[in-house]
Amino acid sequence: MVKGSHHSLHHSFNNSLIKNMAKSAQTIKTQKEPTGAPVKFIFERTNYMWFIISIAVVTVGFFLMAGTTDIYSTTKIVVAPVVVLAGFGIGFYAILKK
Fold it and tell me: Does the keyword Transmembrane helix apply (predicted)?
C-alpha cells in the first residue's frame, strides 16, 4: 500500500463523513419546528380514574388475603382472589376503554 493513497482515502472519508453529519444536523433542525398542534395523550382522564380504582380494588383483595389466622377461611380462598381478579379486570377495562 502506498503511503499517499492511504492519506487521501482517509481525507476523502473524513470529508464525506462531515458532509453527511451536516446534512443530518440540518434534517434534525427542520424536524424540531413546533407545529402548534395540541399534545394528544393516549389515555383520557376517565382511563386514569378507572386505573386508580383498579389499583384500589386489587389492594383491598390482597388485604383480604393477608393474615395468618384461619388461612382456609372462605374470605381468604374465595372472596379475596375474586376481588383481586375483579381489580385486574377493571385495569384491563381502563387500558382498553376509548
Answer: yes
Q: Quick check: 95 and 54 in contact, CB under 8 A?
A: no
At 28, the amino acid letter reads I
- Listed by start position, the domains of the chain span 45-96
Q: What is the pLDDT at residue 38?
A: 86
Model pLDDT, residue 37:
82
Write out the three cell numbers for 17.
463523513
DSSP character string of 19-59 = HHHHHHHHHHHHHTS---PPP--SS-HHHHHHHHHHHHHHH
Enter the C-alpha cell of residue 6.
Answer: 492511504
